[in-house]
Write a structure and sequence with these properties.
337 residues, alpha+beta, 60s Ribosomal Protein L30, Chain: A, Phosphoribosyl-aminoimidazole Synthetase, Chain A, domain 2, seven-stranded mixed β-sheet, 26% strand
């Protein structure tokens, strides 16, 4: 039953209720000129260096899933927030809360996974904290990671830089991570197996940064999926994001499974997909470069920025009809990351 004076699962889903909670509680009490930018990472200057800092907590269930685990996700999830902010991450911290009775074998497996992911991403885990709580006080294991990176000289990505006519680009198929988590929970077997796209976006982000001011802004499309990510950008830029269904890279397996399960792939979480807003003059060259990098082989344009409906997202359906694509309402799937 809905209770207006209580936190709900939907408040953690990354959609409209998450935004409302952040504004009503955290921005209200923590407001400052860095936090109020509401970017994937905080950007600030210290001693003449421009730095990016981000933190994230991971409570995914199940903790092991096809294509990854909570450890791999905890490293890449935070690395990606720094990477799409225009920075190269160097150092990380890891705070780990463990339920009493958790198998040491599983803890070793998670730690090894984190170490491998950090090595691949080129970061070092240099600080951390471990807590153990009574059985039932936490579900198996929760992990918080923070990352610090350096922003490349001359780079200043921001939604305010987006212009009408800019291209909307994604680097591959949508909805795989969310679908994997949901099918794992339900023990639902797909005829064509799907794996989580959990991966570092740093190599792709670094390629895009070579295009300087032609690259307006990047985001990783995690909780709330592509639709919610675009809605956030539309609100922050005051422009319209118009995408076309026939251009969207969604695999037939994801489409078919979503129909069976009553899910919408545009709202499913991704953990290895970025959205970039790019000057139309450099689109072809940028996509050619992206195609040469692992994870960027399927990079494509999915739409354009307009000013028809400021602050909103439009979808052109396969029938040729335009409809508004709203921000995620409620909670589609809890504990996806």
């Amino acid at each position: 039953m809905y209770q207006a004076d209580r936190v709900e699962l939907a408040h953690g889903g990354g959609g409209r209720k998450t935004q409302q909670l952040i504004k009503a509680v955290f921005q209200k009490h923590f407001a400052n000129n860095i936090l109020d930018q509401m970017l994937d990472a905080a950007i600030f200057d210290i001693a003449g260096s421009k730095l990016a800092f981000s933190t994230d907590s991971f409570v995914i269930n199940p903790i092991f899933f096809p294509g990854g685990d909570i450890g791999k996700l905890a490293v890449y999830g935070t690395v990606n927030d720094v990477a799409v902010s225009g920075a190269k991450p160097y150092y990380m911290s890891a705070g780990i809360i463990i339920e009493e009775g958790f198998l040491l074998e599983d803890l070793q497996r998670i730690a090894a996974s984190m170490a491998l992911a950090a090595q691949i991403a080129g970061v070092q885990i240099v600080a951390g904290d471990t807590k153990v709580v009574e059985k039932g006080a936490v579900d198996k294991i929760f992990i918080n990671t923070s990352a610090l990176g350096v922003v490349r000289a001359g780079i200043a990505l921001h939604p305010a830089k987006i212009k009408p006519g800019d291209a909307i680009i994604v680097n591959g198929s949508m909805g795989e991570h969310g679908l994997v988590i949901e099918t794992s929970r339900r023990a639902f077997t797909l005829a064509t197996p799907v794996q989580s796209d959990c991966a570092s976006l740093l190599p792709l982000a670094q390629v895009m940064l070579q295009f300087g001011d032609k690259l307006r802004c990047m985001r990783d499309a995690t909780r709330g999926g592509l639709a919610t990510t675009l809605n956030e950008l539309a609100v922050q830029s005051g422009l319209t994001f118009a995408i076309e269904q026939e251009l969207l890279p969604i695999s037939p397996t994801v489409v078919g499974a979503c129909k069976l399960l009553g899910l919408d792939p545009l709202y499913l979480a991704n953990e290895g997909k970025l959205v970039a807003i790019v000057d139309p003059d450099c689109v072809d060259a940028l996509i050619r470069e992206m195609h040469l990098v692992k994870g960027g082989e399927n990079t494509c344009v999915v739409g354009r920025v307009t000013c028809d409906l400021p602050g909103m997202v439009e979808l052109k359906t396969l029938l040729g009809v335009w409809r508004v694509l709203p921000m995620l309402e409620g909670e589609m799937l809890p504990r996806l990351c």
